[in-house]
Amino acid sequence: MDRLMDIPSSAELKRVVVVGGGFAGLNFCKRLKDERFQIVLLDKTNHHNFQPLLYQVATAGVEPSSISFPFRSLFAGRKNFHIRMCEVLETDAETQEVKTSIGRLHYDYLVIATGCDTNYFGNKALEENTMALKTTAEALYNRNHILESFERAVDTDDMQEREKLLTFVVVGGGATGVELAGALAEMRRFVLRKDYPDLDVDKMRIILVDGKDRLLYSFKPKSSREAEEYLRYRGVELKQKTRVLGYENEVLRLSNEEIPTANVFWTAGVIANSMGGFSSDMYGHGNRLIVDEFNRVGGYKNVFALGDTALMKQKDWPDGHPQVAQPAMQQADNCADNILAMENGEALKPFKYHDRGSMATIGRNHAVVETKGLVFGGFLGWLVWLVIHLMNIVGFKNRLLIFIDWVWSYFTHNSNLRIVVRPLIKGDRLYRLMKAQEQIREQKHKKTDNS
Amino acid sequence: MDRLMDIPSSAELKRVVVVGGGFAGLNFCKRLKDERFQIVLLDKTNHHNFQPLLYQVATAGVEPSSISFPFRSLFAGRKNFHIRMCEVLETDAETQEVKTSIGRLHYDYLVIATGCDTNYFGNKALEENTMALKTTAEALYNRNHILESFERAVDTDDMQEREKLLTFVVVGGGATGVELAGALAEMRRFVLRKDYPDLDVDKMRIILVDGKDRLLYSFKPKSSREAEEYLRYRGVELKQKTRVLGYENEVLRLSNEEIPTANVFWTAGVIANSMGGFSSDMYGHGNRLIVDEFNRVGGYKNVFALGDTALMKQKDWPDGHPQVAQPAMQQADNCADNILAMENGEALKPFKYHDRGSMATIGRNHAVVETKGLVFGGFLGWLVWLVIHLMNIVGFKNRLLIFIDWVWSYFTHNSNLRIVVRPLIKGDRLYRLMKAQEQIREQKHKKTDNS
């Protein structure tokens, strides 16, 4: 559509358009507080989503609302701050415009923080039949699916069918895969045993498939060993050095065997989200935008990419920084400072990554932590990490209450979360209602385009 | 499908099949605790849903999980108690069987407690274009729709379009309609003002349309007056003695005017959910199954209908009892006692309704209450009513904590609930995934039918 977005313009204000409200985008907006700037935050959803805990939503451990933070609340009261829910389609760096699903918008500075999506490496069958874990909607989908598998397993008297329904395969031995497998083992211990006395708990299989020779490959071997030992202790079957070839008709084909299963989670790779408007030579591996040490893209002075979607090759990081929250948040701070410096006519500061360590949860309150040369596991590290990360968000306003609410729901094993809510089922009124409304919107867009 | 459901049979146990886990079904299961019975609870979902507060989910006041109670947790530990998530299609009262989406099941006693659905009185356009409020899924749909209307209103520069998006029409002046209109007025006060500084709060219109000459027609005139005054005070426009003719292209046609609006909620009528197998003369008005004073259907000694779906004409209730929680819960208790009496060879007790009063919330913590000749409004009555109703559910197990959690979230105006989560949007991977899995299930059903 060719209309201009309805955002006030003013000669005094430099407009900074931020695409994406993940860790990078959110921290950037938080940092750049100067009255000379107007900030426009564009996102497909209306909320920040604390991705590291999405696996808890999928396994009915916490509510989506406990790890979701609506932008409008986070930035309530900020002057010259505008939020629009839309999809960004394309950038024109020459005319300094982005094209979105709700119109065009001119920028003085553009900050691209679009994050990552799941990577299926081109395998259509996997893309169409496995579950991913990148958005709140996906996490809720997975929760429904897991609970429905339990329900269907209770009912069937076909033992092969029951086996399929109770076999849960997680593909990918990185932090997300390890966390999800650990949480599924918790579900077997706490949920299946209590809620499904008709089912034999031992018949639930949890299998973690990974291509490498050790889990948590980006961690130190000691952490990998601890994760492997803990998961085995909880009854997770590890299939390492194993590739996935395909998944059809509820059979997962591995390089060395076949597993009948109705539940496959795909956490084996990520690919940066992109928008149109950049030539292919501006992209590096994983679809990441190549940036210089100031996070600038393609030689443009006013276009920046941050976090997961940026590829900055530095001395200690020849393949770019890890695609986790810490580099994203630090790049955001540095970028906000540099944009301010440009306005002040000061020198820019190159980005320097301060590696505060890594961490993965492998069970309820059980984690592996690596920081400042230390490698340890357990509850304390888990808590410290959690508080540091969450405080970056909740610190915005005095949102400690929400944190307490979350901790409460996490520790009380609130069984009310185990509800199946399928909003749109075949032939359902809601589905038809959604379709009707979609049609109305499309007609409006056409009308706007023609006018 | 022609298979038998996989539920253990035993000559010593009489099987009671309960269809529906609303107020009636749940209370029946709670009451009938005798080792001579096996209970099988069938429901389309896996949880009881506290319907009187669904309007709070729709207006982002509470989480679905706060008013949903999974059956498996509620009945954890009960012996000879089986739960199946399925749709009940048909009853054969001669062979004493129900047919469901997952197979057939024989019963000794059948308890039909299927509740109500929204009634559009045959108007297809209304059915396809307005929002209802009977299920958790619908409430979440409405929440997303309301928040998206706000977002779209912020963006548009077409003033007619903005007017449509900010006009909210509730059709139906009963308790649900009054409550929803009141809650929308709360959203204008608390949410719109805070989260959308770009929008002029006064531009949000809330209109309540009703065919009668006073709201809450089943209440006393004093209550109606109080509700009308309070809603007007909160800026709700009342259009009474007004009929709705149609809703097309975002224009609502009333008997005396037309209102351009993108948001129409339909709460103007209910119709009892039915299943196949009963002849048309067994149904009374509102599609309710005619029952005798023991809640028995069609002259059968072992088939009962309870609550909203039952029509029992008694001296003080020539049109049947009101379709609310109280009669449903009391009929459930009486029916459970009578089934036990039948096994003991004792006389059955006819149902007698103890009218404990009615109540409707018209604003946050503001209600009208009628009980034992008293008619009053305000906060205390609201709290008393709430505690009585919720305790019937939460009393099952020591679930007070969940109640506290709910009260917390209600009083803190948790803004995190204001998240838009659309699981299935056009062309989305999740939608295709759901379709693929539906197909697999259908193929399985066909296989089972043919075998």
From TrEMBL, chains A, B:
Domain (External alternative NADH-ubiquinone oxidoreductase-like C-terminal) ranges: 356-411
Pfam families: NDH2_C, Pyr_redox_2
Transit peptide among keywords: yes
Keywords noted in UniProt: FAD, Flavoprotein, Membrane, NAD, Oxidoreductase, Transit peptide, Transmembrane, Transmembrane helix
Highest taxon above the source species: Bacteria
EC number per UniProt: 1.6.5.9
Bilayer-spanning residue ranges: 374-394
Enzyme class (EC, first level): oxidoreductase
Reaction(s) catalysed by this chain's protein: a quinone + NADH + H(+) = a quinol + NAD(+)
Family: Belongs to the NADH dehydrogenase family.
Protein's UniProt name: NADH:ubiquinone reductase (non-electrogenic)
Lineage summary: Bacteria, Pseudomonadati, Pseudomonadota, Betaproteobacteria, Burkholderiales
